[in-house]
């Protein structure tokens, strides 16, 4: 017997796209959610940038040449891709499709332009914006990292204002005041609640 549309939809995993400004805690929230739902698959991006000293192929990124990346773009191999700081970054389509088809939920952590591309290619994706409690809080988080000069922090804050202005494009907005609480909200979305 052929499955009904409802039965087939239940078998497919959910595609959750998590976006938000730099410093808002997206990675920490996703890691805490994955700890609660370890069966969830998270994508590893492909990039043309050179690996940093501690990075490993297939752990932080898949590192490829610009020519190889461009071939994948031309063949439709990326669900989304973008250029940032003279390097290309993308999410391979095939493993996302395979995991969803097998019933696994998938989380993608990508920036606003990538989220828009995913929405266009995959209209049933659930877009989640993680926002800071306030811009002052985000500023403190970015400064507290101690990894960037003040002019870079200011550029990141300007980008954050642009990203947060697109809030209406997202299905859900989670305010990250507490990583554990925000992760629990993300788990509820993974569970379809």
Give the arrangement of secondary structure elements.
Elements: H1 5-11, E1 15-19, H2 26-36, E2 41-42, E3 46-47, E4 62-63, H3 66-74, E5 78-84, E6 87-92, H4 93-101, E7 106-109, H5 112-121, E8 126-131, H6 135-145, H7 150-164, E9 172-175, H8 179-190
Parallel strand pairs: 1-7, 1-8, 2-7, 3-4, 8-9
Antiparallel strand pairs: 3-6, 5-6
Report the structural category.
alpha/beta
Task: List the uncertain runs.
Answer: 1-9
Mean pLDDT across all residues, rounded?
A: 90
Sheet with most strands: strand arrangement: 2-7-1-8-9
Estimated radius of gyration: 17 Å
Number of helices: 8
- Helix fraction? 40-55%
> Largest sheet, if any?
5 strands, parallel
The quaternary structure here is: single chain
Number of strand segments: 9
Shape: globular
Query: Distance between the terminal alpha carbons, to the nearest Å?
Result: 29 Å
- Report the sheet-strand fraction: 15-25%
- Compressed to H and E, one letter per element, the order equals HEHEEEHEEHEHEHHEH
